[in-house]
UniProtKB/TrEMBL annotation:
Alphabetical list of PANTHER family matching this protein: CASPASE 14, APOPTOSIS-RELATED CYSTEINE PEPTIDASE (PTHR22576:SF41), MUCOSA ASSOCIATED LYMPHOID TISSUE LYMPHOMA TRANSLOCATION PROTEIN 1/PARACASPASE (PTHR22576)
SMART domains cross-referenced by the UniProt entry: CASc (SM00115)
One Pfam family it belongs to: Peptidase_C14
Matches recorded under Gene3D superfamilies: 3.40.50.1460
Domain Caspase family p10: 150-240
Gene coding for it: Casp3_1
This protein's name: CASP3 protein
Amino acid sequence: MSQPRQSRALVIVNTDFRGSEGEAAFGTRRGARREAEKLSRILSRLNYKVKLMHNKTAKEIEDLYQQECRREHGEYFVSIISSHGEEGAVLGCDAEPVKLTRIFQILSSEKGLALTQIPKIFFVQACRGGEFDRGVLVECDGAEPTPDCFSHYLSIPPHTVVMFACSPGYVAFLNVLGSMFLQALIKVLEGEERHLALNRLMTRVNWQVAFRCQARGTYEGCKEMPCFVTNLLQDVFPFSA
């Protein structure tokens, strides 16, 4: 009897950045490599075939997703991206942006037939702007969403979930021990909560970051609020190996 195809995971972590002239851009993202390696080990234990890639340019990131379109896949495809970013984009190690819409376009192209019908799950650890979340409670009644914040959601292909480290317009925190968001994800995947349906699992990650995480030092007291968007039509259990 043939063995079922193994689910795949692509983990991309950018820690060091260079501009077009080869000069250093931004600071080194200390702590990001270690947590990406830990997430890769966890996913391997959960029966994923993991590809971990360090310091890739914008073009190389696109190429990695093109390659995934040509591979055989199991029940799920998981991708974790850890880098600098801006609203709707993550940065390659050449400091060039990769639009999330471009990644989704690649995965929904005719070349991606192997990925079309299986759940695709993204965790994006990157800033989405320059604002700092001070954790202020704001009451809001009937406000209209800002179109620019949600325009790239419209390009998400079928059977796809995207979870962001922070809300639109805000920064995502990282220190030498790792990021608020991915550390919370690690905690959930290492515990019994990994057996939950994906939407409940992500809600647990939200809770961990909202109530257990807070910036220290220069940004003492600042908070972070992950959020996710999904167009799945049924519960899935991608980490209940």
